[in-house]
Amino acid sequence: MKKSIRIFALLAIGICFAFALPKKGEPKKINVLIDAGHGGKDYGAVHNAFREKEITNQIAAKIMAVNSDKEIVLHFTREEDAFVDLNERVEAMNTIKPDLVLSLHVNYTNKEESRSGMEFFVCKDAKEASKSIAYANKLSDKFENKGYKVAELKYANFYTLKKSEVPTVVMELGYLSNEIDRAYLTNNKTQDEIAGIVADFLKEIK
Ligand SMILES: [Zn+2]
After folding, report:
1. What's the pLDDT tens digit per position in 76-129?
2. Which pTM value belongs to this model?
3. How far is the CA of 97 from the centre of ligand 1 (A)?
4. What is the pLDDT of residues 136-168, one digit of tens each?
5. Ligand 1: distance of its center to the CA of 30 in Å?
């Protein structure tokens, strides 16, 4: 009886290793969690008929649609118009443990309509701060090279950034309160372009 248990245990260990060890020549997979901000009862920023929760969901869906690389495995904190609280988002981050979390948001200010451009945020005190900074810089450079206005990297203690144990970047894609930004944030073609730039970046960090 004891012997059979030992054999079973050895077999189980062997099977675990067979799954855990990548086969020779197997391409490296990268897991990315796309976190579309807001959803459901939480609209995020609103300007007339435009809602942040819909823009972030549209761009998340486009990233999925444009990703043709089988080695890039995408995960989502939500795939529909559902309310997902911050704790659930953090739980997804720290359970899936992806190589990168990209949180999609849209900015808004009622003080200065002229305020515009993309902003990237990371948390300096988070577990994977240095990787987050490197990814944020690389991704923001890609947008800048495509002609988007991008601010210097910003540091913040947002709840999801602080609590995440994996590299995490919050992208504020532009200001819904600004006419020029609003035009590209809500346009089908420029949303496609944004999703394409993200997908190209993911290929490069693979
Ligand atoms: Zn937001």
Report:
1. 999 899 999 999 999 999 999 999 999 999 999 999 999 999 999 999 999 999
2. 0.87
3. 22
4. 999 999 999 999 999 999 999 999 999 999 999
5. 26
> What is the SS3 assignment for the chain?
CHHHHHHHHHHHHHHHHHHHCCCCCCCCCEEEEEEECCECCECCCEECCEEHHHHHHHHHHHHHHHCCCCCEEEEECCCCCCCCCHHHHHHHHHHHCCCEEEEEEEECCCCCCCCCCEEEEECCCCCCHHHHHHHHHHHHHHHHHCCCCECCCEECCCHHHHHCCCCEEEEEEEECCCHHHHHHHCCHHHHHHHHHHHHHHHHHHC
Q: What is the pLDDT of residues 25-74, one digit of tens each?
A: 677 899 999 999 999 999 999 999 999 999 999 999 999 999 999 999 99
Ligand 1 mean position to 176 CA, how many Å? 11
